[in-house]
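Section: Multi-chain targets

For targets with more than one molecule, the full set of components is provided together so that the structure can be written out for the assembly as a whole rather than chain by chain. Components appear in the order listed by the source. The example entry contains two components.
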Amino acid sequence: MSTYNSGSMSSNDILDQLRSKQIISDQHSETISDFLDSRPFSLYHELRSILYLGILLFTSGVGVIVYDNIDSIGHQVIISILAILCILLLGHSVKHRSPFSWLKTIPQSKLADYSLLLGCSLFLILEGYLQYQYELFGTRFGLAVAIPTLLFFLLAYRFDHIGVLSMALTGLASWLGLTIAPTSVVRGNDFTSESLLITAIVLGLALAVAGKVSEIKQLKSRFSFTYLLFGANLASAAALAGLFNHTVWFVYFIISIALSYYLIQTARKEQSAVFLVMGVIYGYVAISYALFYLTPDIMVGLLGIFYMLASSAGTLIFLLNFRKILGTKR
Amino acid sequence: MNRAYQETWVKNLYLQNKCRKWMSKKLLTEAQFERICSQFPHQFYLPNLFVRIGLFLFASVSGSFFVSFIALLFGMESGNSFIIPSIISGIGFFVSLEFMIREKKLYHSGADNALLYAGLVSFFVPLVILFENRLEVWQYCLAALILLIPACYRYADSFLALCLLAVWYTLVMSLMMKSVTGRMLLPFAMVGMSAALYLLVSKICDIYYRQSRILLEFILLLLIYLSGNYYVVREANALINDIGGSESPQIDFAIVFYAFTLIIPALYIFLGLKQKNRILLIAGLLALAFSGFTFYYYTDFLSASQATALSGVLMIGISALCIHYLKQPRYGIADHPEEDSSAYLHIQTILASEVLSDVPAHDNFRFGGSGEFSGGGSAGEY
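Its structure, encoded as tokens over all components, is:
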């Protein structure tokens, strides 16, 4: 017990504790202790982080190099190397593929997932370059975006790759003139244009539905998180922008609230904290804005502080007790 | 003064977490784990990371409106009259902090962090108003230390520990900058002090301060390296002595700093692998990346994009080789996935959409290298 009081807790201290309460036998304790001593040091996350960061750096660098050297001799060489690399990488993923399944599959090689991702990024660079230099698709820019998008969707489902799926979703959004990446939804999109705003809401809702369908039908149900995250985020941000900027604000208000409600319900079913917090924040902003909008101007200053104090404290209480209120376990 | 959080619970929580890992490796049965949970109970409210972020945000919002509410009650005309409302809200923050910890069983759950920071700021602001600009930097630092040391002791908050370190370094540096000898010895003193502090901090084995200790160890390792890094020393030297011009001048003892920049990353990585110390290893990897940058900065045979692509190739190549090589564990090092890595997968999803998919845009057909690349660093999970 003495070690317990001093505050330090090594694995051996913990084993002593367990033994003293007779939860494990001396022999069991020895087995655990032996296992811990002989256990190798795993570099799994470190190596994959470096690999992933390397892919990001390489594609960012190459993306610029290709255009920097557009008139030099070495340039054809660079392009050929890129094309060969792209084929090799995708070939590696194909070679080590698992049979197709609507459930989760595990590739036969530890690196196949990463070669697929890098291959797809290089494909984008190559295709963009071909369009820039040779106007491969002429002025049909839509086609230039649609082709990688379609390809990525196919690859994502065939190889069960969430990263490639999110690249496909990004492509789909940009085909419609939108930015979908979670952190740039707000500043990347020009929601003063109402048609773009409606497109965003429709696309966002469609993605949320796609997520729901893949979950119910068990068609790559692990993709449903990505669909809902991107879709709901896009639709909610667009609905809020509509609430702030456009005359039919009431419609957008209802959409915001419905989305928040759906997110909180999903959070309840899936035990997912991301959707809970998204629902709470978007819902809170929508309701607060609508209340201030309806309050006469003279009252705003006075009510403002009281309202903000009471409502944010109320939300705080909700978040502190949400397990009880929503009846979830986590 | 006592510690704010129930110490037994903190220990039991750590014990439970450790045992949960053992259970996932089949070292303990579920029945045993259940007995452990009932024998070593805790009642902390420990929500998921995202809920904690939400709690932090809403506590900050309600905190700032609480301050403006108090200020409104007292009528705020000039700067000085803000002193009393600020102190009152500070007291309010600490009272509610203590209340929430006791009644709501918070444990670094977001809301308590926000209240703690708000309370400390509310007590520090009157000091700044009262003395306006009449005090010197080190005197403000001293005042901040008087607030921070007991707060760190009682609440064991990692961010506060980091602030404490920052204030301490500012204090020492501002004192040393006063004299010429001090300025000359600055890098050596910094390396020495960081190393001494690292040894001191790594001796803290109390579980109550575990999170603070891990963060400080990591930062101190980086500080040891940065204090002697050639780029930092050369540029800081030019900045301190106010030497203009397009290029900073060569420094004295340059060879010492070259060696330091080269050796420290290798040493960290080697020791990290040898002692199975993940903090050392990750600090070493980051140091290595910065050494690469230092080398690139003072040589000019590569353009920025070439350097980026080349470093990418190196990172892909080395990590792929290591993954291949470690198919079988060697020298006590392996490449096995640990427990649940779903959080890590989600981060990858978001990164892929942020950086990789700059799909050809409609108007301006050019993409890649948008320059907006905020590398996350090889952040590991301890």
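Chain A is about 75% helix and 0% strand.
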